Each structure stands twice: as structure tokens, then as C-alpha cells.
Predict the 3D structure of the following.
Amino acid sequence: MDKEEAFKQLKRMNAKKILLQIPDGLKPQAFDIFNYFASDFNVIVSSSSFYGACDIGNREIYEGVDCIVQLGHTEIPNINYPLPVIFIEYYYNTIEIDDSTFDVLKSDGINKIGLLSSVQYYNEMLYIKDRLERNGFSVYVGKNDGRLKYPGQVLGCNFSTAHSVSLYVDAFLLISTGLFHGIGVQLSSDDRDVYILDLNDKKIHNIRHDTDIFLKKRYARMERALNAKRFCVVVDTKIGQYRMKIANEIYEKLKALNKNVIMTSADNINPADFENFMCDAIIFTGCPRVPIDDEEKFKMPVLTPTEFDLIFGFKKSKRYVMDEIVS
Ligand code: SF4
């Protein structure tokens, strides 16, 4: 939905007061967006950072609000939001790609491709699909589960679209920035090769080497947790990250291992808070990206639930997979 359509929808629902939620990258536009809606609505902009549609803040901040308008994210269909939420999606403009961009796939003998994108590149993905097919590739766009809105979409916590086609493809091509999603696809989907199309330099590269480096770093953290004595299990209170059942299961497993463990909650997990708990390791059940993206910020190892199960032997398979929140 764009902002004009959001405006009309707010009118239709007779909203009076709206709360704007803007991720950091779009905050420079906050004045324009505020003024656009303030012509007809009572608007307040949250200064918090919102990393995904899994997070609409705490109840206190939407007291008296008729509707939340969140920018830059796409709805997570299987979340029951406690009040109406409108998502204004942001897309990048389509960039022209030369056919020679795909030469690396041809020279690596790739024919059947699983095509994926993070949501801001969804239009790009449809364009690339057409270009790949014209160049003779067979393209598979995977089915989304209830946490994803679009076929082929990936989130940092959900690679279901990759799982649904991994048996049929030679490799995946992901349109995204950064490595996190690509590494997640590689580790979670029968270890197929993953290529990333970087739209800045219009080049495709294989990320297997990056995945190997990632694994080395994560195993070093996981092994440190193996020797830890005092653990904090953290349940995140964000509506789309709240996994109390998993947190309870981990707590029980740690008790059974004779570890000293406490249950804790957090909205935005803060490294300093956990230093004060004097714990040796944290198992974090919220956003799967946090233990990985923020690993340097914590003095102690912070593991995802799947890493915990792997290193402490609660998993039959010895294969590392990314933590996912599935429907
Ligand atoms: Fe994104 Fe993390 Fe939320 Fe998933 S849990 S939508 S990866 S912020």
C-alpha cells in the first residue's frame, strides 16, 4: 500500500488519532510524512526504531490510538495485531540489468534457479525472473507460509519460500543487501549454493565462502556457551517475536543439565542489562538476527534456540540451521 491509499483507508475507518512508526532508514522523511497525515489526523511519530512488522511497540504507546501506520515493512499475515495496522511498503526502482550479469550462473552450470528477494526488492525480483527466463533458465519462486506476504519473499526469520523449492533447484539467486538472508537460505535449504545479486554493482556472487566464515564464528561462540554456568533465557515481548513456549523448553533443558538459569524478558535487549545479571551466556528467543548481528556488542555468547539445541545435543542432526519463526 502507498501513502495515498493509506490516507484513504484511514478516512474509511474514521480514524482520528494515528501513530506513525518509522524505521531508522526512513526517519529523514518523518517531517514530510507527519505533515502529510497531520492535515486530517491527530498524528504522533514514535521515535523508537522498528525493525519489522513483528514489532508494533508496547501497549502504553498506543493508548487512545485508532490505527498504527508503519512504514517500510510488509504485514506479517499470521500476527493478530491488537488494533488496526496499515503498512506502507517501500520499493526500490527497477534497475536495468545487462544479460551478461547472468554469465556467472551459466559458467557454474546452473540451470534451475530458486529466485528469492527481501520485500523491498520484490518488484526487482519479478523483473529479474523475466530476464532469467528469457536467458533460458528455469525459475522457481517458492510458496510463502503464513509469516510471509509474497511468494519468493524472505525475512531474516523465515526462509519458507526457499524450503518449498529447494529440492527442485540447482541453486538460489537472492536479491537483497547484506549477507544474512543468503547465509540463512544456504544453511536452511539442503545446502544449495546461494548467489546474491547486488543491485549496486549489478554483479552476482556466490556466498559459500561467506557462509563458511559465518559458521566458524558462530561455532566459536557456541563452544564458549558450552562451558557456561549461569544462563539467562530471554523471551522478547514484541508481538511477533514472543516465543514463551520455546523459552520455557530451553529453561527446562538447562535445569536438566544442572545449569544455574533464570528466565528474563526484554523488549529491546540491552547488553549492559545482562552484564549486570553476571550471566555467562544468553539464549535469546526473539528475533533470530539479534544474536548474530549484535554478537560483538555482548561480552558473553548469545545463542539462538537452534544453536542451543545443536551445541547441547538436543538435536538429532548435527547440521547448523538458522533459527526461524514459522507459521
Ligand atoms: Fe525481521 Fe527479526 Fe522481526 Fe523477523 S523477527 S520480521 S527478522 S525483525
